[in-house]
Amino acid sequence: MRITNVKKFIRSILIILGIAVAITLLISKSTLSHKEVEYKTICVSEGDTLWNIAKDNQITNDYYNNKDVRFIINDLMKINNLDNSNISINQELLIPVV
User: Fold this and answer.
1) Which residues of 65-96 are buried (b: 16+ CB within 10 A; e: fewer)?
2) pLDDT over 90 for what percent of the chain?
């Protein structure tokens, strides 16, 4: 087989490679396994603080394993739509778990 038009040949090869790369990227993104985040609900008891709750979850909750307590507090505030770290007795808080 003889190539008569080198420019068309190179352009065709580049287009085929581009399509192959695009398909590979689409397939790889759709098959990445992400763990679904689930939530448990806790009820705030007397004496509980967001710091204590965060500290407990830092130790016992795999979702927050090796995370800084300040990060956990900010994450809990964001998840529970809290403006500050004040919590009330009997308030329900969502805690992410894996």
Assistant:
1) eeeeeeebbebbbeeeebeeeebeeeeebebb
2) 70
